[in-house]
Here is the input.
Amino acid sequence: MQDFIYCAPTRVIFGKDTELQVGKILKEAGATRVLLQYGGGSIKKSGLYDRVVQAVREAGIELYEIGGVQPNPHLSLVREAIALAREKKVDYLLAVGGGSAIDSTKATAVGVPYEGDVWDFYCGKATPKTALPLGVILTIPAAGSEGSNSSVITNEDGWIKRGLGCDLTRAAFAIYNPELTYTLPAYQTAAGASDIMAHIMERYFTNEPDVDMTDRLCESVLKTILKQAPVCVQDPTNYAARAEMMWASTVAHNDFLTCFRVGDWASHQLAHELSGLYDSTHGAALAVVFPAWMTYVYKHDVQRFCRFAVEVMGVEMDFFHPEETALKGIAALRSFFRSIGMPTTLKELGVPENELDLLASKVKRGPDGTTGKFVPLTEADCRAIYELMK
Ligand code: NZQ
Ligand code: ZN
Here is the structure.
């Protein structure tokens, strides 16, 4: 059981029409000049953009904007946003969208007051000392960026995708209206579910003893996704299911479930290379990576994988053959991903199968040459896990 500091200061405003409060909330926070960042246009199609712009302007706040943030957000757009924010002297940032718009905004937040290049923070050359405040209107439950301290940016120079963990980038407020997620394509809904599950599983597979409470919390949120994700895919306007998915997105990744534990995170590193090089949707990449990673490492702690199989995936425990129980749990997870329309092989993900050496060589590893805490993986291990995704 680890000591911990838990810092999740984001003010949550949850419910129907809550986006209409954004002007008031920004004003109360002291914002006078706001830079809005959003993605490729879904918020314009849905009418959300117009409502947000009106609410902010009615509050007497100057509003500037930069759209076109791509999934797996690019460093070049972050640099543009930083330049614009400096030129217009903005004092508050607003992200409307999902992990990509939010992460681009977080990078802007630390980049504006920094004299060097913002990539310094992502390649580990510098640590942010200060940041602009930011708020979020969430449109997709997935990355959990609305509540997390992290952001992930892709540098087009080398197509390197790297993350920054920094409490200064936690959103001051996050607005959730489940109805905003009704327009999500089924694939994005499912990819979001896969990412939320991955965030919990990265924490669940730990070597830390005596973490029963957070084990049970993890299992409970995972079971909620197993129940509600298929409902959202089949019935996109089911308010209750959408609402539970939205809150699960945050709970999975705002570190509430990290307390007492040490997470693994190798699967995320393996997935980042798929997104960095081939622009794979983050959650879809994780649906391919996670069962392969599990298959590679389950012997490290068969009991924990049995617990996952039984408590989460509903597999019956076979006390005479625990390994079989563990493997059935992994198979059940893979079937679940398939059932909601996620890929489970590199081929389905559209990733060439002849570049596994390159992929394995790019995976971010620590000074000891490994990635992952549950089972530290070498480059050769990473290569073997990619092989299992074929
Ligand atoms: O760009 P627009 O037009 O808005 O369309 C988006 C995008 O195509 C669409 N979308 C979002 N809300 C919608 C909608 N379409 C219709 N109706 C809506 N309500 O969905 C697509 C995906 O959006 P994106 O923001 O990329 O999704 P997500 O939230 O999955 O974010 C993925 C990014 O977050 C990073 C990932 O690596 C990836 O770059 N992550 C961030 C984390 C963090 N900051 O804590 C942790 C995660 O592990 C993850 O790495
Ligand atoms: Zn993720």
